[in-house]
Amino acid sequence: MGTFIQLVVDGLSTGSIYAALALAIVLVNQATGLINFAQGGMAVLSAYTAYAFLQLGLPLIVAILVAVVISFLMGAVIERLLVRRFEGGDPDTAVVVTIGLLTLVTGISAVLWGYNNLAFPSLFPLTSVEILGAVVSVRSLATTVTIVAIMVVLQVLFLRTKLGLALRAVADNPGSAAFSGLPVGRLLMVGWGLAAVLGAIAGVLVAPQLTLTPGMLDTALVYALAAVILGGLSSPIGCVVAASAIGVLENLVAVYVPLIGHDLKIAVPFVLIFVILVIRPQGLFGRKVVVRV
Amino acid sequence: MTLLELTGVTASYGPVQVLDGVELTVPEGGSVGILGANGAGKTTTLRAISGTVRTGGRIKFEGRDIRGLRPDQVAARGVAHVPEGRGTLGQLSVRENLLVGAYLRKDRGAISRDIDYCLDLFPQLQDRVGSRAASLSGGEQQMLAVARAFMAKPKLLLLDEASLGLAPSTSKAVYEAIRRLRLESGIAMVVVEQNANLAFSLVDTATVLETGRNVLTGSSAELKGMDEIRRAYLGG
After folding, report:
1. Which residues from chain A sit within 8 angstroms of residue B99, using beta carbons?
2. Could you give the CA distance from residue A111 to residue A50 in angstroms, rounded to a whole number?
3. Looking at residue B117, what is its pLDDT?
4. Distances in Å between the alpha carbon of B113 and those of A39, A203, B119, B123, B218?
5. Residue B101 and residue B150 in contact, taking contact as beta carbons nearer than 8 Å
6. Measured between beta carbons, which residues in chain B are less than 8 angstroms from residue A172?
7. Shortest CA distance to A171 belongs to which of A78, A33, A20?
8. What is the pLDDT of residue B63?
9. Given CB 3.0 to 4.6 Å as the disulfide criterion, which of A24, A214, B58, B103 pairs with A109?
């Protein structure tokens, strides 16, 4: 029982990292209709940025906050200078562009910091506490709580503020939103900026565990995409639930199903995707797109 | 006082010239109709005004040139465009659509009063304030689109084919409400409408377009029943 609880909490913790990336992907998709495959690579660049400021002698939390601000600007600039040219065009082209962007930002990280694993300090103490007889790491708990808190803040932003309403309006129909005077371009930049901030937070939360490398979040991105598809592209809560489920499931399966083990656990979300998409093509929580003519 | 003045406005989609020197004058508080067959350039004229198509010529609003402005900048000057095919935000609720309409306004108290006014104007929307716009019927969506445009408190409303795809009784109700809106708010309007009777119920003057050019302009009373009007509508 102790092992089980520990596995679940650890799973929730890695799941919450996938969730943060998944939320960033959903945010961008809602705002621009694109899937940003570079979201993971951008998040790694953000984590490296925090690392650089740490090297300059800034305290960890300050370095992270500076990196978050820079990430916001990075997301906004990428939208304005690169993605803007492909919005509303052929979605296939846009996919290739974001994959190219992934290669580019990963390359930038590698050029600046190399491929060697760099140690990144944890925001949270590396101690553990006992819950129901299980030893649970404080870091896992705190990571989960942080991501859940951010999710709540996002939900409030989107549902209770004027900025959130404007972002949703632009996501729904940019052309129509402009008729009400919404500055569509600026709002799209804000959307990309916020997504980059989410990625940055995911990056710095996971970096202590994985150690910093340019490809640190490649696997996480795959899981995040799985969560996005499972949860439904239109449902932030759905993708968080799906991401958590994936995190927990891969942990449990690795330990309790010997046939799969640690080597094959990456296959688990894909089998899930396959099964669920056959049954519910719009994802578990997504809405079917109904077009009225 | 002239509110809107188009002089020699041209526009093309690729190599196809759609507007070929369109003229249009809307006095403050006035209502002008644009009539004509399919492809005559009615919708494009509205799009030229709201900045959603690249144009030549001169477009003056309140004496200032607005040609070349982005749609959101034109909206900020006080022009609200209700596009063809229901300008609603499908995933947002009816109330949220109305709030988006009021995006540029700062007078919070008046905004909720105006929402009440819209619901009074279109009682069908009352029970649906919390529903997503996409779940509304075609008529209700058209009402919401008009109400959303009104929420911006514009000086000029551009209305494109508000009757498109609606049952005759529904489009009559929509136009009835728009007429009341015009009477009570004094907003000036440019009305594009295929149904001549509906159009004449709302406009003081009208111009007939043919292949991107004005061929006839006059008061509603003059134009009603003229042969050219029937010809324009039948496309012959």
Report:
1. 162, 165
2. 16
3. 97
4. 43, 46, 10, 15, 37
5. yes
6. 89-92
7. A33
8. 95
9. A214
Mean pLDDT on A273-292: 69
> Which residues have C-beta within 8 Å of that of residue A280, sequence separation ≥ 6?
none
pLDDT tens column, B66-98: 999 999 999 999 999 999 887 899 989 999 999
Most B CBs within 10 Å: which of A180, A233, A288, A289, as the mutation test of the B interface? A180
Contacts of B81 in chain A (CB under 8 A): 179
Q: What local confidence, expressed as pLDDT, does residue A293 receive?
A: 42
Contact residues, chain A, for B80 at CB < 8 Å: 179-180
| Residues A170-196, mean pLDDT to the nearest whole number | 93
Q: What's the predicted TM-score (pTM) here?
A: 0.86
Distance from CA of B108 to the nearest CA of A (A): 12
Decide if A82 is inside a domain. yes
Q: What percent of chain B has pLDDT over 90?
A: 82
Quick check: is A63 in a domain? yes
Instruction: Judge: A176–B52 Cβ closer than 8 Å, yes or no.
Output: no
Kind plus residue range of the DSSP H or E element containing B65: strand B64-65
State whether residue A109 is helix, strand or coil.
Answer: helix
Number of domains making up chain A: 1
> What secondary structure letter does DSSP report for A124?
S
Q: Which residues of A fall below an 8 Å CB-CB distance to B?
A: 162, 165-166, 168-169, 171-173, 175-184, 234, 290, 292
Best mutation target, B47, B70, B89, B144, to test chain A (most A CBs within 10 A): B89
- Report, in angstroms and rounded to the nearest whole number, the Rg of chain B calculated over CA atoms: 17
pLDDT higher than 90, residue B120: yes
* pLDDT at residue A291, as a whole number: 46
Q: What is the ipTM of this complex?
A: 0.91
Any domain includes A245: no
In a domain, A20, yes or no: yes
The domain in which residue A85 lies consists of: 2-217
pLDDT tens-digit map of B194-204: 888 899 999 99
